[in-house]
Amino acid sequence: RSLISQGLSGFRGTVTDHPNFDANSDAEALYNAMKGFGSDKEAILDLVTSRNNAQRQEIRSAYKSLYGKDLIADLKYELTGKFERLIASLMLPPAYHDAKEIKDAIKGAGTDEKCLIEILASRTNEQIHSLVEAYKDAYGRDVEQDVIGDTSGHFKKMLIVLLQGTREEDGVVHADLVEEDAQALYAAGEEQWGTDEAIFIMLLGNRSVTHLQLVFDEYQKITEKSIEDSIKSELSGDFERLMLAVVQCIRSRAMFFARRLYKSMKGLGTADNTLIRIMISRSEIDMLDIRECFRLRYDKSLHNMIEDDTSGEYKRTLLKLCGGDDDVAGEFFPEAAQIAYKMWEISAMSKVQLRGTVHPYAEFDPGSDAQDLRKAMKGFGTDEDTIIDIIARRSNDQRQVIRQAFKSLLGRDLMADLKSELSKNLCRLILGLMMTPPEFDAKMMRKAMEGAGTDEHALIEILVTRSNQDIQAMCEAYQEAYKKSLEDAIHSDTSGHFCRILVSLAQGGREEGPADLDKAVQDAQVSEEFPNVVWTMMDKFMSILCTRSFPHLRRVFQEFVRCTNKDIELIIKKEMSGDVKNVMLAIVRSVKNQPSYFADRLYKAMKGLGTDDRALIRIMVSRSEIDLFNIRKEFKETHDASLHDFIQVEALVVSVPLLSSAAASGPPFQGCVKVHEEHPKLQVHELIVHRG
């Protein structure tokens, strides 16, 4: 049943040529829709979106012949806002639309680098050549010279290479150069101090898509890193973003555009220019594949996101171009199946170097630190800055030595003193940093289960992401602190299959080591059966998720795509519910990419009204010496904003209600900035985020 091995063929757009097309009749219909007082917007959008671009050009010619007027000029006069931009852009030939977007990106004071990147990284040779000619015809200028005048450095050089439209055609593979090219990329980046950008530009700007896909696979074998991870570590700024876009388009243009569409609509406000540009430019090429990739990556359909994020005739036109809704857990089309399979393959092959942001302090003096901390807490008031500076700049092992020195030198309990001097979230955060990791995890588990409600998300996060050794140490710390086993506490506070999964994870008995390929196929077949016979197969499926090693599970989920043409994550979403669904999804997402899982947890902790401070503190403390650097990278990649900026905004929002009447009575912005600067939670989080 698998579609993975099938080649893509046939038309993959959503806008097709209209049968029984009559350019004169359509021109007359548009004229009548704009005649008199007001315009019939529904008639206009229905007609324009149900004709392909070639037919629209015939309608433009017929309109001028019949009425002696320019159709686009009339549409711009009659329509307004985003709807006008969308309809007018649909009437342009593709090359002229691209040329206009490039022109708009570089005119005026600033440059829209993201627009330049999107267009030049994603277009074929033929499309680039047409764009260059259209730009010359429309503006009487050379697009290359305009780009040179508006950009600089390696970013400019790569844009100029792409503007030549000389990439080798798809299917051209130099078999004898695949390994050599992979080695050249490695030698130009990871292997040496500094980066030879010219090698990256030459190879990524000229080799065929098919050839580079093989090079990327070979690169992964050599370095045990994806080419994307190497680009992120070796390059920076607009040049990094351009090269990542080129790689993403080589892997899958459809997935590249799915990401761009998602980023154009998520969060507050919509990047309408991006949304319009992509929906128009891909509607007759690969919109079906983009829709598939969108639901694969974001667990919702493109149709639904457009529906939620736009309104009026603008929304209806975009939905016409989208072409329909998708069942989130339905079978993949070939392109998306290939991508899902490849995603798991890359995940299985990659050995990501995890990096924390807090490291041992080079000039560590525990006695001096203990004295400085005592001094910061003596007398009237507390010197929070000194406390933050010392504790956030020492590793956990060093903090334990400070605790002991504080008691030996001063005869006092540092934790008790900190607790009495600090308050609220700053107190929780500093005390969390001063605990050993097992003590902190045990306390977080206890907090998640005490009182009336249960924080199931906290239980899931901790038990899914900790190693066997971490879990065993946490269980010992829990028993020591609360005179009760963690397993008994879980039994008391949860029930059913959710309880059984948590208890299984709390044993700290997950297998370790590489994947067993034969067993992975068998496990994939069990996984294939479980949604159809939920209760008879649930135990086996739970056992696989809770006991197999992460490398093995990556192979299982990859085989699952091959066997079923579906993604395990989407199946769990459709078939399961409640806490069982949440814990299973957490396991799958951690197996796929654990830093990305934590980045998503941090985003959810801070988005919307109010901040989940416990979750924010728990993740920042527990990951600061393990993989917070990687989490930062994933956060930026997914949300187009740095974790640092998000924490700044959230600290500011949390602080606004704390403004004194004096501050509130002054200029609002000044008052907010004052609290922002003095907010201790922000300061310590910034230190943790930025160390290293």
3D architecture notes:
- Its main location: cytoplasm.
- InterPro entries: Annexin, Annexin_repeat, Annexin_repeat_CS, Annexin_sf, ANX6.
- It is a single chain.
- By secondary structure, this protein is mostly helical.
- The chain is 72% helix and 0% strand.
- It contains 42 helices and no strands.
- Helix 39 packs across helix 41.
- The N terminus is likely disordered.
Major sheet characteristics: none
Shape label = elongated
Rg over C-alpha atoms, rounded to the nearest angstrom: 29 Å
Question: Percent range for helical residues?
Answer: over 70%
Unreliable stretches? 1-9, 652-678
**Count of helix runs:** 42
Average pLDDT works out at 87
Strand runs, count: 0
Structural class by secondary-structure content:
mainly alpha
The N- to C-terminal Cα distance equals 49 Å
Strand content: under 5%
Briefly characterize the structure.
By secondary structure, this protein is mainly α. 72% of the residues lie in helices and 0% in strands.
Describe how the helices and strands are arranged.
Layout: H1 23-34, H2 41-49, H3 53-67, H4 71-78, H5 81-90, H6 94-106, H7 113-122, H8 125-139, H9 143-150, H10 153-163, H11 178-188, H12 197-206, H13 209-223, H14 227-234, H15 237-251, H16 253-265, H17 272-282, H18 287-298, H19 302-309, H20 312-322, H21 334-349, H22 366-377, H23 384-392, H24 396-410, H25 414-421, H26 424-434, H27 437-449, H28 456-465, H29 468-482, H30 486-493, H31 496-506, H32 517-529, H33 534-547, H34 550-564, H35 568-575, H36 578-606, H37 613-623, H38 628-639, H39 643-655, H40 661-665, H41 668-678, H42 680-690
Helix pairs in contact: 1-2, 1-3, 2-20, 4-5, 5-17, 5-20, 6-7, 6-8, 6-9, 7-15, 10-12, 10-15, 11-12, 11-13, 14-15, 15-16, 16-17, 16-18, 16-19, 18-21, 19-20, 21-34, 22-23, 22-24, 23-42, 25-26, 26-37, 27-28, 27-29, 27-30, 28-36, 30-31, 32-33, 32-34, 34-36, 35-36, 36-37, 36-38, 39-41, 39-42
